[in-house]
Specification:
31% of the residues lie in helices and 24% in strands. By secondary structure, it is an alpha+beta fold.
Amino acid sequence: NRFLPYPEIKTKCVFSLDDDRLVSRKSLQLGFRMWKKFPNMLVGYVARAHGYDKLRKRSYYRRTELLSGEKYSIVITSSAFLHINYLYIYTNSAPSEIIEFVNKYQNC
């Protein structure tokens, strides 16, 4: 599981990367510099938007282009920097139903 806080990880920063993603050295360096400025945030290269549509009375998740007024609200961990504490929080505090769902569907 990619979200386990393995004891071999000795750094505060973890770079999570899917095997089908490519990140240039320049982008990697910029991302790491940004993470150092904001170490309690996910800093990544793939973003999504979510919200609630009042007219349709349902939540939405947008993978494609944003509509007017929308903002990105989710950073996908397919290529992202995160603090090691997030791995501990996920592993030790997330409800078992969430962990089971992520393990089953992986790309959720």
